[in-house]
Design a protein that fits this description.
Helix content: 40-55%
Strand content: 5-15%
Strand order of the largest sheet: 1-2-3
CATH architecture of the domain at 78-195: Alpha-Beta Complex
Bound molecules: glutamic acid
Distance between the termini: 79 Å
CATH topology of the domain at 78-195: Glutamyl-tRNA Synthetase, domain 3
Low-confidence stretches: none
Largest sheet: 3 strands, parallel
CATH class of the domain at 78-195: Alpha Beta
Mean pLDDT: 96
Structural class: mainly alpha
Radius of gyration: 32 Å
Shape: elongated
């Protein structure tokens, strides 16, 4: 039998890291067992669902490299089918109309609260007679459809992550509401627990992998599967992603949507690699830098931890920096170029741009770090206090003059790395100036401060963009 997994996001917000991690586990396991990864958009909350969120979720999945295998299913297009199944449950006596009003429910809650009891429906309309139903309807009362839950039943399943899970019928909050309120004999819009069972069955889903916040839903859903005689899929409940305080990662933790990670300059490969380790501890992985294809070969649901997974910016940053370091230079240059374009900075040539990308790649953690670090290569930097102090205290003026004369004498030669080293060596020997002073003075002229990337390689770039001489001259004027 074909193995089929799915992600069933509700498009009520931007693609969230928790949903992305669930998608990743589903995708990895589908690949591991040679199955399919499918998408169902659960867009039946008409008030909160938006098509731009669907777009955002699908784009985010694509960006992360989590391609799906069939056209996504839209839950909202299946409402009439869900209603047919509700009708079937009504007809076989597994469900019934419940006319309890909102006020009655509030009173019940209040009463239970005062007694220190958890909220639970008292199933008061489970055995209404035809006449009673008719009387409620003629009074204009609306009704929901409730699914009967046997208080005494024990629901059991072997969770692929958590082992055996047992749930008591009495702890499920009373008979389960399957549909929203409707007037007369109508059936209102179906709710999540009903729709998810019908759709997972329709899509022939064999493995349901989702967050642990759905454990009690699974218990309810198993009862619906049984009432409809559907084959049960296997269930797996992944741990939640926690913030540094051990609480569920939420919007309050600043960055939670995949777009934000993208905008900050995280690479999709790095974010996906990091997310795989959010809850998954492989028995055998030699490195933590590992592609999704490689992970999918060794991935197993049983290697997912039960305990919550703490989100660590430090680890994500480290993984991102490793991907940047090891990226093919042309590809890296293309990615960084987008940031340069946004700033209106134009590299003098493609080769120059690639050299600059190579120069920066060891020191950037996020792609957007390239903005600050490449700024002095595009704009004349202001001289910082430390640079100013250096120019004043040392033999900087002499150093810069010697370098300038050398360049002028050679008629503005092209300085490549070899030539740059040669110039420093020669001037140092000829005029007895320390190499360190020569290089630091030059660094201040180029970068305005005493820090920055490798000076020799940078000189080659400044020479190619024909700004080395002008920067030295400008500095000399300031001394
Ligand atoms: N729409 C549900 C959610 O986003 C799906 C849960 C499930 O996978 O069944 O939480």
């Amino acid at each position: 039998m074909e193995k089929r997994l799915r992600l069933a996001p509700s498009p009520t917000g931007l693609f969230h890291i928790g949903t992305a991690r669930t998608a990743l586990f589903n995708w990895l396991y589908a690949r591991k067992i040679g199955g399919k990864f499918l998408i169902r958009i659960e867009d039946t909350d008409f008030i909160r669902s938006k098509s731009e969120y669907t777009k955002n979720i699908l784009e985010g999945l694509n960006w992360l490299g989590l391609k799906w295998d069939e056209e996504p299913v839209k839950q909202s297009e299946r409402i009439s089918i869900h209603k047919k199944y509700i009708q079937k449950l009504l007809e076989c006596g597994a469900a019934y109309r419940c006319f309890t009003t909102e006020d009655e429910i509030s009173d019940l809650r209040e009463e239970q609260k005062n007694k220190g009891l958890p909220p639970k429906h008292d199933n008061r309309h489970r055995n209404l007679s035809k006449d009673e139903i008719e009387s409620f309807i003629s009074q204009g009362r609306t009704s929901v459809i409730r699914f009967k839950i046997d208080e005494k039943i024990q629901i059991k399943w072997v969770d692929q992550i958590r082992g055996e899970i047992k749930w008591q019928g009495k702890d499920l909050g009373g008979d389960l509401v399957l549909s929203r309120r409707a007037i007369g004999y109508e059936i209102g819009d179906p709710l999540y627990n009903l729709a998810v069972v019908i759709d997972d069955n329709f899509m022939n889903i064999t493995h349901v992998v989702r967050g642990e916040d759905h454990i009690s839903n699974t218990a309810k859903q198993i009862l619906i599967y049984e009432a409809l005689n559907f084959n049960l899929p296997t269930f797996s409940h992944a741990p939640l992603i926690l913030n540094s305080e051990g609480k569920k990662l939420s919007k309050r933790d600043c960055v939670t949507s995949i777009d934000e990670f993208k905008d900050m300059g995280y690479l999709p490969e790095a974010l996906a690699n990091y997310m795989a380790f959010l809850g998954w501890s492989p028995k055998s992985a030699e490195s933590e830098i590992i592609s999704l294809d490689e992970i999918s070969k060794i991935f197993d649901l049983s290697d997912i931890n039960k305990a919550g997974a703490k989100f660590s910016w430090e680890k994500l940053n480290w993984i991102n920096s490793q991907y940047i370091k090891n990226m093919e230079s042309g590809k890296l240059c293309k990615l960084i170029s987008k940031y340069w374009d946004n700033m209106g900075w134009e590299p003098p040539s493609k080769e120059w741009a690639i050299k600059l990308a190579i120069l920066l790649r060891d020191s950037i953690t996020l792609l957007k770090d390239a903005i600050d670090q490449s700024k002095p290569f595009f704009l004349i930097p202001t001289i910082q206090k430390e640079g100013q102090d250096f120019l004043e205290k040392n033999d900087s003026e002499t150093s810069l003059k010697l370098i300038l004369n050398y360049l002028n004498e050679q008629n503005a030669i092209k300085v490549d790395k070899e030539k740059a080293k040669e110039i420093i060596n020669e001037i140092s020997k000829m005029y007895n100036v320390k190499k360190g002073i020569l290089m630091k003075s030059l660094r201040v002229a180029f970068f305005g401060s005493l820090s920055g990337p490798d000076l020799i390689q940078s000189w080659e770039l400044f020479s190619e963009s024909k700004t080395d001489i002008s920067r030295i001259k400008r500095c000399l004027k300031l001394i």
